[in-house]
């Protein structure tokens, strides 16, 4: 399975011929390379409604006729904002759904979730989540914008991720030291820092994360926007 990092929290996994985008904030994302803003995505999976995760979902869905999987409340908002009802998959924390040959599960995350609309202001968008994507015997875990919480151990035990994408930027999410603990608890074969460097307030340093992981015997890989990795 090939996974591309597009900056901030956006990743696209190529699974058979299906492009699965988790939190594909591309247009408006200062760290997304210019030429990748219109990357094809067949299935968009959203961890929560904040603009730096879900803020480009409407445009991408329109552009590529993508299906969107999200929590019930967020999916309801997206429907009101014009997404075709047949293109929405309503989910919630703890649930799994088989979509386009890929199993998507939403896990708990400790954060908040709201969605900014043009006409109705900022709306409550349900629980924030992490996302597990399974296909072809491989498992991706994307932690969303979570704080450190002990059930990350349960997520690790249950899903045994091959790769875990963990926020390290601090201020809105875990910082480096908490993300190292999360990495240890999750037991993923490899961990990748996300949600850093996009804005100056996200001061957690991905190289510091990698060094601290390696001290604990955890393999970490720092991806630059546009980079691919294979799992
Ligand atoms: Ni957020
Ligand atoms: Mn965020």
Which key terms come to mind for this protein?
about 230 residues, alpha/beta, 7-stranded mixed sheet, 6-stranded mixed sheet, 15 strands, about 30% strand, binds nickel (II) ion, binds manganese (II) ion
Structure description:
The chain has 231 residues and is of the alpha/beta class. The protein contains 6 helices and 15 strands. It has helices at 51-54, 57-64, 72-80, 152-159, 176-186, 206-215, and strands spanning 2-5, 11-15, 18-22, 43-45, 67-71, 88-91, 96-99, 102-108, 114-117, 121-124, 129-135, 138-142, 163-167, 190-194, 228-230. It has a 7-stranded mixed β-sheet with strand order 6-5-4-3-2-1-15, covered by helices on one side. Strands 7-8-11-12-13-14 form a 6-stranded mixed β-sheet. Helix 5 (176-186) crosses helix 6. The chain is globular and about 50 Å long. It starts with a strand and ends with a strand. The model has no long low-confidence stretch (mean pLDDT 97). The structure holds nickel (II) ion and manganese (II) ion.
Q: Which secondary structure elements does this structure contain, and how are they paired or packed?
A:
Layout: E1 2-5, E2 11-15, E3 18-22, E4 43-45, H1 51-54, H2 57-64, E5 67-71, H3 72-80, E6 88-91, E7 96-99, E8 102-108, E9 114-117, E10 121-124, E11 129-135, E12 138-142, H4 152-159, E13 163-167, H5 176-186, E14 190-194, H6 206-215, E15 228-230
Parallel strand pairs: 3-4, 4-5, 5-6, 12-13, 13-14
Antiparallel strand pairs: 1-2, 1-15, 2-3, 7-8, 8-11, 9-10, 11-12
Helix pairs in contact: 5-6
The structure holds nickel (II) ion and manganese (II) ion.
